[in-house]
Amino acid sequence: MQKKLTLLHCNDIHGDFLPKKGADGKKTGGLALMSGYVKKARAEEENVIFANAGDMFRGSVIDSEFMGLSTIELMNALSPDVTTVGNHEIDYGLAHLLFLEKCARFPIINSDLYITLNNARLFKPYMNIEVGGMRIMFIGLLTEEVISSAKSEKVIGTYIDVANAAKEVGIIADNYRTKDTDMLVLLTHIGIEKDRELASLLDPDWGVDMIIGGHSHTFMDKPEIVNGIPIVQAGTGSGQIGRFDIVYDDIEKRIISQTWRLQPINEDTAEPDPIAEQLLSRYKSQTDAKYHRLVTSFARELSHPSRIQETEMGNLYADLLQEDSSFDIMLMGSGSIRKKAMGPVVEYQDMVENTPFDDQLFMLKVTGDEFRRMIQFVMRDDAWEGHTEFYQFSKGVRIVYRKSTHRLEELSFRGKEVRDGDEFLIAMQTYHYNNFEEFFNVPLSPVKERMRPRVVATSVNNIIEEYFSTHQNLDAHVEGRIVILD
Hints:
This protein starts with a strand and ends with a strand. About 30% of the residues lie in helices and about 30% in strands. The protein has 15 helices and 30 strands. The chain has 2 domains: about 1-285, Purple Acid Phosphatase, chain A, domain 2, CATH 3.60.21; about 295-485, Alpha-Beta Complex (5'-nucleotidase,  domain 2). A hairpin with a 2-residue loop joins strand 26 and strand 27 (about 415). By secondary structure, it is an alpha/beta fold. It is globular, with a radius of gyration of 23 Å. It has a 6-stranded mixed β-sheet, with helices on one face. Strands 9-10-12-13-15-14 form a 6-stranded mixed β-sheet, covered by helices on one side. A 5-stranded mixed β-sheet has the order 24-20-28-23-29.
């Protein structure tokens, strides 16, 4: 007997709750339209499952103002059948995440976060969803980067590499996958590159049918097939949703056929869900009064199109944080700048959404040799997949790197070559300082011995807001600070 299953999925919504207007003037994306599409699919198709592969939080003042509680309420309206934990789910702290889980009316699974004191899992590792006489098992897996964003959470651990994550899949499959399990889906938040690696390590006897991923914000035209397993993602934001249409043979116990597409979410494909619209309107009215005020103006729209290149906004932020400071060089995490473009009018909401990770600024003293090794490590091959930390540098720094030879052809500061014995005062945000050795592959202990790292600002956004409010018509250009050669 053949049965049909429609498996919808999204990932990395990142607070993209409100619709945007496309070139044709029609609304695209937003949670109300996404919820409308899901409801439409559930009405039209007999068997529908909707899964979310993590990172609901961050990117919107509607999220940050209520520390994720608003997001949980909006996701309750969206009503996913299963969700896994993304790395940004822990941004507000572990205790708050566990509180938010209690507010969620949908299940949250994760197999590899645990309490280090007794190895107890924080979440249920898997769940079975029964629909149309079929049982589909989902296993949740999280990127190792959760440790990066939770260094202060000493009681949290996770499996730190893909090999151990694959082993965990085998343990769960061996213990809980039974003859009644019709399909096994991995709901991951580890990025497309790690999904490929994970798929290659999976034993076919574990019966994994597909990997639905997140974290790398990958838009796909079709699934990638690795080790016979299709891997999919649905980009980022709410402007699209992934859709599997599956035919399953209940007698032969196997998938007969499956098609996948990335489905646009717009006025042509869905009607807005009035419940989600009402919730959004309520939260938006509360945030508008606080966040819709002018803080500055740019000379023109400034861009940040990619995390792995020098950008206009990257230069602007790195420079303003370094200006009138006690340090020589600002290393601004590219991923700390969240918008691809901003301006010329900049409201308070734009400002805080663009730099939502408002933490302290640390100053350290490094040698020229250490600085060179830091840059060399940042420019490693993994960077070009977008899965490692990359940086924007304040004025005076010039980096020329050739990918084909893995060689720094130039590293200079204020027109002078960086020499091993030079010393530089550098600054970075707390997240990057806490993960200094992992992100830069340089031991921290000799850096600390040279000069005790110290906090030179308690709030990055305090500096940004003050600078914006006292400077108008701001402009910045790509100047050749970072030159990448093939």
